[in-house]
Amino acid sequence: MKLILLIDILGTIAFAISGVLTAINKRLDPFGILIIAFVAAIGGGTLRDILIGANVAWMRDLTYVYVIFGSTIFTVVFRKRLEYIRRSLLLFDTIGITFYTIVGVEKGIAAGFEPIICIALGTITACFGGVIRDILCNEIPIIFRKEIYATACILGASAYFLLLNTTIPLDFIVIISGSVIFIVRLLAVYFNLSLPTIYRKDELE
Amino acid sequence: MKLILLIDILGTIAFAISGVLTAINKRLDPFGILIIAFVAAIGGGTLRDILIGANVAWMRDLTYVYVIFGSTIFTVVFRKRLEYIRRSLLLFDTIGITFYTIVGVEKGIAAGFEPIICIALGTITACFGGVIRDILCNEIPIIFRKEIYATACILGASAYFLLLNTTIPLDFIVIISGSVIFIVRLLAVYFNLSLPTIYRKDELE
Amino acid sequence: MKLILLIDILGTIAFAISGVLTAINKRLDPFGILIIAFVAAIGGGTLRDILIGANVAWMRDLTYVYVIFGSTIFTVVFRKRLEYIRRSLLLFDTIGITFYTIVGVEKGIAAGFEPIICIALGTITACFGGVIRDILCNEIPIIFRKEIYATACILGASAYFLLLNTTIPLDFIVIISGSVIFIVRLLAVYFNLSLPTIYRKDELE
Protein backbone atom coordinates (compact mmCIF):
# COMPACT_ATOMS: atom_id res chain seq x y z
CA MET A 1 0.00 0.00 0.00
CA LYS A 2 2.89 2.38 0.72
CA LEU A 3 4.57 1.35 -2.54
CA ILE A 4 1.50 2.26 -4.58
CA LEU A 5 1.31 5.68 -2.89
CA LEU A 6 4.98 6.28 -3.70
CA ILE A 7 4.62 5.34 -7.39
CA ASP A 8 1.45 7.46 -7.60
CA ILE A 9 3.46 10.49 -6.39
CA LEU A 10 6.36 9.67 -8.75
CA GLY A 11 3.91 9.42 -11.67
CA THR A 12 2.38 12.77 -10.65
CA ILE A 13 5.82 14.43 -10.65
CA ALA A 14 6.75 12.91 -14.01
CA PHE A 15 3.50 13.98 -15.69
CA ALA A 16 3.54 17.46 -14.12
CA ILE A 17 7.07 17.96 -15.53
CA SER A 18 5.96 16.64 -18.93
CA GLY A 19 3.02 19.09 -18.84
CA VAL A 20 5.26 22.05 -17.96
CA LEU A 21 7.74 21.16 -20.73
CA THR A 22 4.91 20.90 -23.30
CA ALA A 23 3.41 24.21 -22.13
CA ILE A 24 6.79 26.01 -22.19
CA ASN A 25 7.33 24.63 -25.69
CA LYS A 26 4.09 26.40 -26.65
CA ARG A 27 5.23 29.58 -24.78
CA LEU A 28 2.10 29.63 -22.57
CA ASP A 29 1.82 32.20 -19.76
CA PRO A 30 2.36 31.18 -16.07
CA PHE A 31 -1.31 30.33 -15.51
CA GLY A 32 -1.45 28.26 -18.69
CA ILE A 33 1.66 26.32 -17.63
CA LEU A 34 0.12 25.54 -14.23
CA ILE A 35 -3.17 24.39 -15.81
CA ILE A 36 -1.41 22.09 -18.31
CA ALA A 37 0.77 20.65 -15.50
CA PHE A 38 -2.37 19.90 -13.45
CA VAL A 39 -4.32 18.45 -16.36
CA ALA A 40 -1.41 16.23 -17.44
CA ALA A 41 -0.85 15.01 -13.87
CA ILE A 42 -4.45 14.45 -12.74
CA GLY A 43 -6.52 14.08 -15.94
CA GLY A 44 -6.15 10.31 -16.28
CA GLY A 45 -6.66 9.57 -12.58
CA THR A 46 -9.70 11.84 -12.44
CA LEU A 47 -11.44 10.04 -15.32
CA ARG A 48 -10.55 6.69 -13.69
CA ASP A 49 -12.03 7.74 -10.33
CA ILE A 50 -15.19 9.09 -11.99
CA LEU A 51 -15.61 5.82 -13.97
CA ILE A 52 -15.07 3.72 -10.83
CA GLY A 53 -17.45 5.97 -8.88
CA ALA A 54 -14.77 6.65 -6.27
CA ASN A 55 -13.78 9.96 -4.65
CA VAL A 56 -11.45 11.89 -6.95
CA ALA A 57 -8.03 11.38 -5.32
CA TRP A 58 -6.49 14.87 -5.58
CA MET A 59 -9.61 16.54 -4.16
CA ARG A 60 -9.34 14.81 -0.79
CA ASP A 61 -5.53 14.59 -0.50
CA LEU A 62 -3.69 17.89 -1.00
CA THR A 63 -0.37 16.05 -1.38
CA TYR A 64 -1.01 15.87 -5.14
CA VAL A 65 -1.71 19.61 -5.35
CA TYR A 66 1.50 20.50 -3.47
CA VAL A 67 3.56 18.04 -5.53
CA ILE A 68 2.25 19.54 -8.79
CA PHE A 69 2.86 23.12 -7.60
CA GLY A 70 6.40 22.17 -6.52
CA SER A 71 7.19 20.26 -9.74
CA THR A 72 5.89 23.17 -11.82
CA ILE A 73 8.04 25.80 -10.07
CA PHE A 74 11.09 23.50 -10.13
CA THR A 75 10.70 22.77 -13.85
CA VAL A 76 10.11 26.41 -14.79
CA VAL A 77 13.22 27.51 -12.86
CA PHE A 78 15.51 24.72 -14.08
CA ARG A 79 14.05 24.35 -17.58
CA LYS A 80 17.37 25.22 -19.24
CA ARG A 81 19.12 22.30 -17.52
CA LEU A 82 16.26 19.92 -18.30
CA GLU A 83 16.58 20.86 -21.94
CA TYR A 84 20.21 19.72 -21.82
CA ILE A 85 18.85 16.23 -21.20
CA ARG A 86 17.63 15.59 -24.71
CA ARG A 87 14.36 13.75 -25.05
CA SER A 88 13.63 14.76 -21.43
CA LEU A 89 9.95 15.22 -22.24
CA LEU A 90 9.81 11.72 -23.72
CA LEU A 91 11.55 10.31 -20.67
CA PHE A 92 9.23 11.91 -18.13
CA ASP A 93 6.20 10.95 -20.20
CA THR A 94 7.37 7.32 -20.26
CA ILE A 95 8.02 7.33 -16.49
CA GLY A 96 4.53 8.78 -16.06
CA ILE A 97 2.71 6.10 -18.05
CA THR A 98 4.72 3.35 -16.32
CA PHE A 99 3.72 4.43 -12.82
CA TYR A 100 0.15 5.44 -13.67
CA THR A 101 -0.70 2.17 -15.44
CA ILE A 102 0.22 0.22 -12.28
CA VAL A 103 -1.77 2.63 -10.07
CA GLY A 104 -4.83 2.33 -12.32
CA VAL A 105 -4.66 -1.47 -12.40
CA GLU A 106 -4.35 -1.70 -8.61
CA LYS A 107 -7.24 0.74 -8.00
CA GLY A 108 -9.37 -1.33 -10.39
CA ILE A 109 -8.53 -4.53 -8.50
CA ALA A 110 -9.28 -2.83 -5.16
CA ALA A 111 -12.72 -1.81 -6.52
CA GLY A 112 -13.42 -5.41 -7.55
CA PHE A 113 -13.40 -5.14 -11.34
CA GLU A 114 -12.59 -7.92 -13.83
CA PRO A 115 -8.97 -8.05 -15.17
CA ILE A 116 -9.91 -6.72 -18.63
CA ILE A 117 -11.60 -3.67 -17.06
CA CYS A 118 -8.58 -3.14 -14.75
CA ILE A 119 -6.29 -3.18 -17.80
CA ALA A 120 -8.55 -0.56 -19.42
CA LEU A 121 -8.48 1.52 -16.21
CA GLY A 122 -4.66 1.35 -16.08
CA THR A 123 -4.42 2.45 -19.71
CA ILE A 124 -6.93 5.28 -19.17
CA THR A 125 -5.04 6.48 -16.06
CA ALA A 126 -1.79 6.48 -18.00
CA CYS A 127 -2.94 7.92 -21.32
CA PHE A 128 -5.84 10.28 -20.74
CA GLY A 129 -3.94 13.10 -18.98
CA GLY A 130 -1.53 13.20 -21.91
CA VAL A 131 -4.43 13.28 -24.38
CA ILE A 132 -5.96 16.37 -22.71
CA ARG A 133 -2.47 17.95 -22.34
CA ASP A 134 -1.88 17.56 -26.09
CA ILE A 135 -5.38 18.69 -27.13
CA LEU A 136 -5.16 21.84 -24.98
CA CYS A 137 -1.68 22.55 -26.42
CA ASN A 138 -3.11 22.04 -29.92
CA GLU A 139 -0.89 19.02 -30.62
CA ILE A 140 -2.20 15.77 -32.13
CA PRO A 141 -2.47 13.50 -29.05
CA ILE A 142 0.72 11.41 -28.72
CA ILE A 143 -1.48 8.31 -28.30
CA PHE A 144 -2.83 8.65 -31.86
CA ARG A 145 0.53 9.26 -33.50
CA LYS A 146 1.66 6.07 -35.20
CA GLU A 147 3.68 4.59 -32.33
CA ILE A 148 3.34 1.97 -29.65
CA TYR A 149 2.13 3.95 -26.64
CA ALA A 150 -1.14 2.69 -25.14
CA THR A 151 -0.07 -0.75 -26.39
CA ALA A 152 2.87 -0.64 -23.93
CA CYS A 153 0.45 0.07 -21.09
CA ILE A 154 -1.85 -2.77 -22.16
CA LEU A 155 1.10 -5.21 -22.35
CA GLY A 156 2.41 -4.18 -18.91
CA ALA A 157 -1.03 -4.39 -17.32
CA SER A 158 -1.57 -7.83 -18.89
CA ALA A 159 1.81 -8.97 -17.53
CA TYR A 160 0.65 -7.85 -14.08
CA PHE A 161 -2.35 -10.20 -14.22
CA LEU A 162 -0.34 -13.10 -15.66
CA LEU A 163 2.18 -12.80 -12.81
CA LEU A 164 -0.61 -12.48 -10.23
CA ASN A 165 -1.30 -16.21 -10.83
CA THR A 166 2.27 -17.10 -9.83
CA THR A 167 4.00 -17.12 -6.41
CA ILE A 168 6.05 -14.02 -7.23
CA PRO A 169 5.67 -11.41 -4.44
CA LEU A 170 3.52 -8.36 -5.28
CA ASP A 171 6.39 -5.86 -5.10
CA PHE A 172 8.28 -7.81 -7.78
CA ILE A 173 5.16 -8.07 -9.95
CA VAL A 174 4.92 -4.28 -9.81
CA ILE A 175 8.59 -3.89 -10.77
CA ILE A 176 8.43 -6.46 -13.60
CA SER A 177 5.19 -5.21 -15.18
CA GLY A 178 6.38 -1.61 -14.80
CA SER A 179 9.62 -2.54 -16.58
CA VAL A 180 7.61 -4.10 -19.42
CA ILE A 181 5.81 -0.78 -20.02
CA PHE A 182 8.98 1.32 -19.73
CA ILE A 183 11.11 -0.91 -21.97
CA VAL A 184 8.44 -1.59 -24.64
CA ARG A 185 7.73 2.13 -24.95
CA LEU A 186 11.41 3.14 -25.16
CA LEU A 187 12.21 0.34 -27.65
CA ALA A 188 9.22 1.40 -29.77
CA VAL A 189 10.49 4.99 -29.90
CA TYR A 190 14.15 3.96 -30.41
CA PHE A 191 13.46 1.51 -33.23
CA ASN A 192 10.47 3.52 -34.51
CA LEU A 193 8.17 0.48 -34.15
CA SER A 194 4.47 0.56 -34.94
CA LEU A 195 1.61 -1.94 -34.94
CA PRO A 196 1.28 -4.16 -38.05
CA THR A 197 -1.10 -2.72 -40.65
CA ILE A 198 -4.44 -4.33 -41.54
CA TYR A 199 -4.62 -2.59 -44.92
CA ARG A 200 -3.72 -4.12 -48.26
CA LYS A 201 -1.64 -1.99 -50.61
CA ASP A 202 -4.60 -1.09 -52.83
CA GLU A 203 -6.50 0.25 -49.82
CA LEU A 204 -3.75 2.73 -48.98
CA GLU A 205 -3.58 4.33 -52.40
CA MET B 1 -36.56 -5.59 -19.17
CA LYS B 2 -35.24 -8.25 -21.53
CA LEU B 3 -36.28 -6.13 -24.54
CA ILE B 4 -34.26 -3.16 -23.29
CA LEU B 5 -31.17 -5.36 -22.79
CA LEU B 6 -31.55 -6.69 -26.34
CA ILE B 7 -31.86 -3.22 -27.93
CA ASP B 8 -28.91 -2.02 -25.82
CA ILE B 9 -26.76 -4.81 -27.31
CA LEU B 10 -28.06 -4.11 -30.84
CA GLY B 11 -27.21 -0.42 -30.41
CA THR B 12 -23.73 -1.38 -29.16
CA ILE B 13 -23.12 -3.55 -32.24
CA ALA B 14 -24.41 -0.83 -34.61
CA PHE B 15 -22.24 1.90 -33.06
CA ALA B 16 -19.15 -0.33 -32.81
CA ILE B 17 -19.49 -1.09 -36.55
CA SER B 18 -19.99 2.63 -37.30
CA GLY B 19 -16.83 3.38 -35.27
CA VAL B 20 -14.77 0.74 -37.11
CA LEU B 21 -15.95 2.01 -40.52
CA THR B 22 -15.07 5.62 -39.57
CA ALA B 23 -11.64 4.53 -38.25
CA ILE B 24 -10.88 2.41 -41.34
CA ASN B 25 -11.89 5.37 -43.49
CA LYS B 26 -9.15 7.33 -41.67
CA ARG B 27 -6.70 4.39 -42.10
CA LEU B 28 -6.06 4.11 -38.35
CA ASP B 29 -3.91 1.27 -36.98
CA PRO B 30 -5.52 -1.77 -35.21
CA PHE B 31 -5.34 -0.17 -31.76
CA GLY B 32 -6.86 3.06 -33.05
CA ILE B 33 -9.72 1.14 -34.68
CA LEU B 34 -10.48 -0.68 -31.43
CA ILE B 35 -10.43 2.57 -29.40
CA ILE B 36 -12.78 4.35 -31.83
CA ALA B 37 -15.13 1.32 -31.84
CA PHE B 38 -15.23 1.41 -28.02
CA VAL B 39 -15.67 5.16 -27.76
CA ALA B 40 -18.45 5.19 -30.38
CA ALA B 41 -20.24 2.29 -28.66
CA ILE B 42 -19.92 3.29 -24.99
CA GLY B 43 -19.24 7.08 -25.02
CA GLY B 44 -22.87 8.18 -24.86
CA GLY B 45 -23.92 5.59 -22.28
CA THR B 46 -20.91 6.37 -20.10
CA LEU B 47 -21.75 10.09 -19.97
CA ARG B 48 -25.39 9.19 -19.23
CA ASP B 49 -24.43 6.89 -16.35
CA ILE B 50 -22.02 9.48 -14.89
CA LEU B 51 -24.72 12.19 -15.08
CA ILE B 52 -27.28 9.89 -13.44
CA GLY B 53 -24.74 8.87 -10.81
CA ALA B 54 -25.21 5.19 -11.68
CA ASN B 55 -22.57 2.50 -12.15
CA VAL B 56 -21.07 2.70 -15.64
CA ALA B 57 -22.78 -0.21 -17.44
CA TRP B 58 -19.85 -1.69 -19.44
CA MET B 59 -17.55 -1.76 -16.39
CA ARG B 60 -19.74 -4.19 -14.46
CA ASP B 61 -21.06 -6.26 -17.38
CA LEU B 62 -18.40 -7.65 -19.73
CA THR B 63 -21.05 -8.51 -22.35
CA TYR B 64 -20.54 -5.05 -23.86
CA VAL B 65 -16.76 -5.51 -24.05
CA TYR B 66 -17.06 -8.90 -25.78
CA VAL B 67 -19.73 -7.59 -28.18
CA ILE B 68 -17.51 -4.63 -29.16
CA PHE B 69 -14.43 -6.88 -29.61
CA GLY B 70 -16.49 -9.28 -31.75
CA SER B 71 -18.10 -6.52 -33.84
CA THR B 72 -14.70 -4.92 -34.42
CA ILE B 73 -13.04 -8.13 -35.66
CA PHE B 74 -16.10 -9.00 -37.79
CA THR B 75 -16.20 -5.56 -39.39
CA VAL B 76 -12.43 -5.45 -40.06
CA VAL B 77 -12.53 -8.89 -41.73
CA PHE B 78 -15.68 -8.29 -43.78
CA ARG B 79 -15.15 -4.59 -44.46
CA LYS B 80 -15.08 -5.11 -48.23
CA ARG B 81 -18.56 -6.63 -48.22
CA LEU B 82 -19.91 -3.92 -45.92
CA GLU B 83 -18.64 -1.35 -48.37
CA TYR B 84 -20.81 -2.94 -51.08
CA ILE B 85 -23.80 -1.87 -49.02
CA ARG B 86 -23.57 1.81 -49.87
CA ARG B 87 -24.35 4.22 -47.05
CA SER B 88 -23.68 1.33 -44.63
CA LEU B 89 -22.05 3.71 -42.15
CA LEU B 90 -25.12 5.95 -42.26
CA LEU B 91 -27.39 2.94 -41.77
CA PHE B 92 -25.54 1.59 -38.72
CA ASP B 93 -25.30 5.07 -37.24
CA THR B 94 -29.07 5.49 -37.63
CA ILE B 95 -29.76 2.07 -36.08
CA GLY B 96 -27.44 3.07 -33.22
CA ILE B 97 -29.20 6.33 -32.37
CA THR B 98 -32.60 4.63 -32.61
CA PHE B 99 -31.75 1.96 -30.03
CA TYR B 100 -29.66 4.18 -27.75
CA THR B 101 -32.29 6.93 -27.49
CA ILE B 102 -34.82 4.38 -26.17
CA VAL B 103 -32.25 2.91 -23.74
CA GLY B 104 -31.36 6.38 -22.42
CA VAL B 105 -34.99 7.37 -21.95
CA GLU B 106 -35.83 4.15 -20.09
CA LYS B 107 -32.76 4.44 -17.80
CA GLY B 108 -33.79 8.01 -17.03
CA ILE B 109 -37.33 6.91 -16.14
CA ALA B 110 -35.94 4.08 -13.97
CA ALA B 111 -33.81 6.64 -12.08
CA GLY B 112 -36.89 8.79 -11.45
CA PHE B 113 -36.11 11.82 -13.61
CA GLU B 114 -38.66 14.21 -15.17
CA PRO B 115 -39.66 13.55 -18.84
CA ILE B 116 -37.66 16.52 -20.20
CA ILE B 117 -34.49 15.25 -18.47
CA CYS B 118 -35.16 11.70 -19.76
CA ILE B 119 -35.46 13.09 -23.31
CA ALA B 120 -32.11 14.84 -22.80
CA LEU B 121 -30.57 11.60 -21.45
CA GLY B 122 -31.85 9.63 -24.47
CA THR B 123 -30.39 12.21 -26.84
CA ILE B 124 -27.05 12.26 -24.98
CA THR B 125 -26.86 8.44 -25.01
CA ALA B 126 -27.54 8.43 -28.74
CA CYS B 127 -25.41 11.36 -29.87
CA PHE B 128 -22.41 11.70 -27.57
CA GLY B 129 -20.51 8.56 -28.65
CA GLY B 130 -20.72 9.74 -32.24
CA VAL B 131 -19.47 13.20 -31.25
CA ILE B 132 -16.32 11.76 -29.60
CA ARG B 133 -15.87 9.31 -32.52
CA ASP B 134 -15.90 12.20 -34.99
CA ILE B 135 -13.70 14.51 -32.88
CA LEU B 136 -11.04 11.77 -32.41
CA CYS B 137 -11.17 11.05 -36.17
CA ASN B 138 -10.79 14.78 -36.84
CA GLU B 139 -14.20 15.05 -38.52
CA ILE B 140 -16.69 17.80 -37.76
CA PRO B 141 -19.21 16.01 -35.45
CA ILE B 142 -22.12 14.70 -37.53
CA ILE B 143 -24.50 16.26 -35.00
CA PHE B 144 -23.30 19.78 -35.89
CA ARG B 145 -23.47 19.30 -39.63
CA LYS B 146 -26.60 20.97 -40.93
CA GLU B 147 -28.98 18.00 -40.79
CA ILE B 148 -31.73 16.66 -38.59
CA TYR B 149 -29.92 14.24 -36.27
CA ALA B 150 -30.38 14.99 -32.57
CA THR B 151 -33.76 16.40 -33.55
CA ALA B 152 -34.85 12.89 -34.62
CA CYS B 153 -33.85 11.57 -31.18
CA ILE B 154 -35.74 14.35 -29.42
CA LEU B 155 -38.88 13.69 -31.52
CA GLY B 156 -38.73 9.92 -30.87
CA ALA B 157 -38.17 10.40 -27.14
CA SER B 158 -41.06 12.87 -26.99
CA ALA B 159 -43.30 10.38 -28.82
CA TYR B 160 -42.37 7.82 -26.13
CA PHE B 161 -43.72 10.06 -23.37
CA LEU B 162 -46.85 11.02 -25.31
CA LEU B 163 -47.67 7.33 -25.86
CA LEU B 164 -46.94 6.51 -22.21
CA ASN B 165 -50.18 8.34 -21.33
CA THR B 166 -52.18 5.98 -23.55
CA THR B 167 -53.16 2.34 -23.09
CA ILE B 168 -50.69 1.14 -25.73
CA PRO B 169 -48.49 -1.67 -24.32
CA LEU B 170 -44.86 -0.72 -23.55
CA ASP B 171 -43.34 -2.97 -26.24
CA PHE B 172 -45.39 -1.21 -28.91
CA ILE B 173 -44.44 2.22 -27.51
CA VAL B 174 -40.78 1.22 -27.89
CA ILE B 175 -41.34 0.06 -31.49
CA ILE B 176 -43.36 3.15 -32.47
CA SER B 177 -41.03 5.74 -30.91
CA GLY B 178 -38.00 3.89 -32.29
CA SER B 179 -39.58 3.97 -35.75
CA VAL B 180 -40.11 7.74 -35.41
CA ILE B 181 -36.35 8.24 -34.83
CA PHE B 182 -35.31 5.87 -37.63
CA ILE B 183 -37.74 7.23 -40.23
CA VAL B 184 -37.26 10.94 -39.38
CA ARG B 185 -33.48 10.56 -39.62
CA LEU B 186 -33.53 8.62 -42.92
CA LEU B 187 -36.09 11.02 -44.47
CA ALA B 188 -33.93 13.97 -43.38
CA VAL B 189 -30.88 12.47 -45.08
CA TYR B 190 -32.82 11.36 -48.19
CA PHE B 191 -34.57 14.69 -48.76
CA ASN B 192 -31.65 16.69 -47.36
CA LEU B 193 -33.91 18.36 -44.77
CA SER B 194 -32.65 20.82 -42.19
CA LEU B 195 -34.22 22.94 -39.45
CA PRO B 196 -35.80 26.25 -40.52
CA THR B 197 -33.40 29.18 -40.25
CA ILE B 198 -33.85 32.00 -37.74
CA TYR B 199 -31.69 34.41 -39.73
CA ARG B 200 -32.95 37.12 -42.04
CA LYS B 201 -31.21 37.47 -45.39
CA ASP B 202 -29.19 40.53 -44.34
CA GLU B 203 -27.79 38.64 -41.33
CA LEU B 204 -26.34 35.93 -43.53
CA GLU B 205 -24.40 38.26 -45.83
CA MET C 1 -28.94 29.98 1.08
CA LYS C 2 -31.52 31.98 -0.87
CA LEU C 3 -28.81 34.42 -2.02
CA ILE C 4 -26.71 31.58 -3.48
CA LEU C 5 -29.75 30.21 -5.36
CA LEU C 6 -30.42 33.67 -6.79
CA ILE C 7 -26.84 34.20 -7.98
CA ASP C 8 -26.82 30.68 -9.45
CA ILE C 9 -29.89 31.56 -11.55
CA LEU C 10 -28.38 34.94 -12.54
CA GLY C 11 -25.18 33.17 -13.63
CA THR C 12 -27.24 30.65 -15.62
CA ILE C 13 -29.06 33.47 -17.45
CA ALA C 14 -25.80 35.34 -18.17
CA PHE C 15 -24.03 32.25 -19.53
CA ALA C 16 -27.07 31.09 -21.56
CA ILE C 17 -27.18 34.54 -23.20
CA SER C 18 -23.41 34.41 -23.84
CA GLY C 19 -23.89 30.96 -25.42
CA VAL C 20 -26.71 32.14 -27.68
CA LEU C 21 -24.71 35.20 -28.80
CA THR C 22 -21.67 33.02 -29.62
CA ALA C 23 -23.86 30.51 -31.52
CA ILE C 24 -25.67 33.25 -33.48
CA ASN C 25 -22.26 34.73 -34.33
CA LYS C 26 -21.45 31.33 -35.89
CA ARG C 27 -24.88 31.25 -37.64
CA LEU C 28 -25.83 27.90 -36.05
CA ASP C 29 -29.33 26.48 -36.57
CA PRO C 30 -31.99 26.65 -33.78
CA PHE C 31 -30.98 23.29 -32.29
CA GLY C 32 -27.30 24.25 -32.29
CA ILE C 33 -28.10 27.54 -30.53
CA LEU C 34 -30.06 25.72 -27.80
CA ILE C 35 -27.25 23.17 -27.28
CA ILE C 36 -24.56 25.87 -27.00
CA ALA C 37 -26.76 27.85 -24.58
CA PHE C 38 -27.17 24.72 -22.41
CA VAL C 39 -23.50 23.74 -22.53
CA ALA C 40 -22.34 27.27 -21.70
CA ALA C 41 -24.81 27.53 -18.81
CA ILE C 42 -24.43 24.08 -17.22
CA GLY C 43 -21.04 22.75 -18.40
CA GLY C 44 -18.97 24.14 -15.53
CA GLY C 45 -21.47 23.24 -12.81
CA THR C 46 -21.88 19.73 -14.22
CA LEU C 47 -18.12 19.05 -14.08
CA ARG C 48 -18.04 20.51 -10.53
CA ASP C 49 -20.89 18.26 -9.35
CA ILE C 50 -19.30 15.17 -10.96
CA LEU C 51 -15.93 15.97 -9.30
CA ILE C 52 -17.61 16.50 -5.91
CA GLY C 53 -19.63 13.32 -6.38
CA ALA C 54 -22.89 15.25 -5.86
CA ASN C 55 -26.14 15.05 -7.83
CA VAL C 56 -25.89 17.12 -11.01
CA ALA C 57 -27.93 20.22 -10.14
CA TRP C 58 -29.90 20.81 -13.37
CA MET C 59 -31.02 17.17 -13.55
CA ARG C 60 -33.00 17.32 -10.31
CA ASP C 61 -34.20 20.94 -10.49
CA LEU C 62 -35.96 21.90 -13.73
CA THR C 63 -35.67 25.62 -12.86
CA TYR C 64 -32.33 25.68 -14.70
CA VAL C 65 -33.82 24.06 -17.81
CA TYR C 66 -36.73 26.54 -17.94
CA VAL C 67 -34.40 29.50 -17.31
CA ILE C 68 -32.11 28.42 -20.17
CA PHE C 69 -35.06 27.84 -22.54
CA GLY C 70 -36.45 31.27 -21.63
CA SER C 71 -33.09 33.06 -21.93
CA THR C 72 -32.47 31.42 -25.31
CA ILE C 73 -35.82 32.46 -26.80
CA PHE C 74 -35.50 35.97 -25.33
CA THR C 75 -31.97 36.42 -26.74
CA VAL C 76 -32.84 35.07 -30.19
CA VAL C 77 -35.86 37.39 -30.44
CA PHE C 78 -34.12 40.51 -29.11
CA ARG C 79 -30.65 39.83 -30.54
CA LYS C 80 -30.67 43.02 -32.59
CA ARG C 81 -31.13 45.17 -29.48
CA LEU C 82 -28.49 43.22 -27.55
CA GLU C 83 -26.08 43.94 -30.36
CA TYR C 84 -26.64 47.65 -29.80
CA ILE C 85 -25.04 47.16 -26.40
CA ARG C 86 -21.50 46.79 -27.64
CA ARG C 87 -19.36 44.21 -25.86
CA SER C 88 -22.62 42.63 -24.62
CA LEU C 89 -21.14 39.14 -24.97
CA LEU C 90 -18.13 40.18 -22.90
CA LEU C 91 -20.41 41.71 -20.27
CA PHE C 92 -22.63 38.65 -19.89
CA ASP C 93 -19.60 36.38 -19.82
CA THR C 94 -18.07 38.48 -17.03
CA ILE C 95 -21.34 38.46 -15.06
CA GLY C 96 -21.43 34.68 -15.53
CA ILE C 97 -17.93 33.99 -14.18
CA THR C 98 -18.55 36.34 -11.23
CA PHE C 99 -21.66 34.51 -10.07
CA TYR C 100 -20.46 31.00 -10.89
CA THR C 101 -17.13 31.35 -9.05
CA ILE C 102 -19.00 32.20 -5.84
CA VAL C 103 -21.45 29.30 -6.34
CA GLY C 104 -18.59 26.86 -6.94
CA VAL C 105 -16.67 28.03 -3.86
CA GLU C 106 -19.75 27.75 -1.63
CA LYS C 107 -20.64 24.26 -2.93
CA GLY C 108 -17.04 23.19 -2.26
CA ILE C 109 -17.23 24.52 1.32
CA ALA C 110 -20.59 22.78 1.84
CA ALA C 111 -19.01 19.48 0.71
CA GLY C 112 -16.16 19.94 3.22
CA PHE C 113 -13.22 20.53 0.88
CA GLU C 114 -10.03 22.47 1.71
CA PRO C 115 -9.90 26.16 0.61
CA ILE C 116 -7.46 25.49 -2.27
CA ILE C 117 -9.80 22.82 -3.70
CA CYS C 118 -12.80 25.15 -3.26
CA ILE C 119 -10.94 27.87 -5.20
CA ALA C 120 -10.30 25.31 -7.96
CA LEU C 121 -13.99 24.27 -7.94
CA GLY C 122 -15.09 27.91 -8.20
CA THR C 123 -12.73 28.47 -11.14
CA ILE C 124 -13.89 25.24 -12.86
CA THR C 125 -17.57 26.19 -12.39
CA ALA C 126 -16.90 29.61 -13.88
CA CYS C 127 -14.58 28.69 -16.75
CA PHE C 128 -15.42 25.20 -18.01
CA GLY C 129 -18.80 25.98 -19.61
CA GLY C 130 -17.14 28.73 -21.62
CA VAL C 131 -14.33 26.38 -22.67
CA ILE C 132 -16.81 23.82 -24.11
CA ARG C 133 -18.88 26.63 -25.66
CA ASP C 134 -15.79 27.94 -27.47
CA ILE C 135 -14.51 24.48 -28.52
CA LEU C 136 -17.91 23.49 -29.97
CA CYS C 137 -18.05 26.83 -31.82
CA ASN C 138 -14.53 26.22 -33.11
CA GLU C 139 -13.08 29.24 -31.28
CA ILE C 140 -9.87 29.14 -29.29
CA PRO C 141 -11.17 28.98 -25.67
CA ILE C 142 -11.30 32.51 -24.21
CA ILE C 143 -9.48 31.18 -21.12
CA PHE C 144 -6.37 30.40 -23.17
CA ARG C 145 -6.26 33.71 -25.01
CA LYS C 146 -3.63 35.90 -23.44
CA GLU C 147 -5.80 37.73 -20.93
CA ILE C 148 -6.59 37.66 -17.25
CA TYR C 149 -9.69 35.48 -17.06
CA ALA C 150 -9.35 32.46 -14.77
CA THR C 151 -6.91 34.59 -12.77
CA ALA C 152 -9.80 36.94 -11.89
CA CYS C 153 -11.80 33.95 -10.59
CA ILE C 154 -8.84 32.72 -8.53
CA LEU C 155 -8.31 36.19 -7.03
CA GLY C 156 -12.01 36.58 -6.14
CA ALA C 157 -12.21 33.08 -4.64
CA SER C 158 -9.05 33.76 -2.60
CA ALA C 159 -10.56 37.04 -1.36
CA TYR C 160 -13.60 35.05 -0.22
CA PHE C 161 -11.45 32.85 2.04
CA LEU C 162 -9.40 35.79 3.38
CA LEU C 163 -12.60 37.61 4.37
CA LEU C 164 -14.06 34.46 5.90
CA ASN C 165 -11.52 34.88 8.71
CA THR C 166 -12.89 38.32 9.54
CA THR C 167 -16.14 39.41 11.21
CA ILE C 168 -17.61 40.66 7.93
CA PRO C 169 -21.12 39.15 7.37
CA LEU C 170 -21.34 36.44 4.68
CA ASP C 171 -23.57 38.47 2.33
CA PHE C 172 -20.94 41.23 2.22
CA ILE C 173 -18.16 38.69 1.65
CA VAL C 174 -20.09 37.44 -1.39
CA ILE C 175 -20.56 40.99 -2.71
CA ILE C 176 -16.91 42.00 -2.12
CA SER C 177 -15.31 38.86 -3.61
CA GLY C 178 -17.77 38.96 -6.54
CA SER C 179 -16.79 42.59 -7.17
CA VAL C 180 -13.10 41.58 -7.17
CA ILE C 181 -13.77 39.10 -10.01
CA PHE C 182 -15.96 41.51 -11.99
CA ILE C 183 -13.62 44.51 -11.67
CA VAL C 184 -10.34 42.59 -12.22
CA ARG C 185 -11.76 40.99 -15.38
CA LEU C 186 -13.14 44.24 -16.81
CA LEU C 187 -9.93 46.17 -15.98
CA ALA C 188 -7.88 43.40 -17.63
CA VAL C 189 -9.93 43.70 -20.82
CA TYR C 190 -10.04 47.51 -20.74
CA PHE C 191 -6.30 47.99 -20.19
CA ASN C 192 -5.41 44.85 -22.15
CA LEU C 193 -3.53 43.41 -19.14
CA SER C 194 -1.88 39.99 -19.16
CA LEU C 195 0.20 37.96 -16.74
CA PRO C 196 3.94 38.76 -16.57
CA THR C 197 6.02 36.59 -18.90
CA ILE C 198 8.49 33.97 -17.63
CA TYR C 199 10.41 33.91 -20.90
CA ARG C 200 13.66 35.74 -21.62
CA LYS C 201 13.91 37.54 -24.94
CA ASP C 202 16.09 34.87 -26.54
CA GLU C 203 13.50 32.20 -25.71
CA LEU C 204 10.78 34.00 -27.65
CA GLU C 205 12.73 34.34 -30.89
Automatic annotation (TrEMBL), chains A, B, C:
Protein's membrane topology: Multi-pass membrane protein
GO cellular component terms, semicolon-separated: plasma membrane
Glycine transporter domain boundaries: 6-79, 91-163
Keywords, alphabetical: Cell membrane, Membrane, Transmembrane, Transmembrane helix
Coiled coil residues, start to end: none
Location, primary (coarse class): membrane
Protein name stated in the entry: Trimeric intracellular cation channel family protein
Species whose genome carries this gene: Aequorivita flava
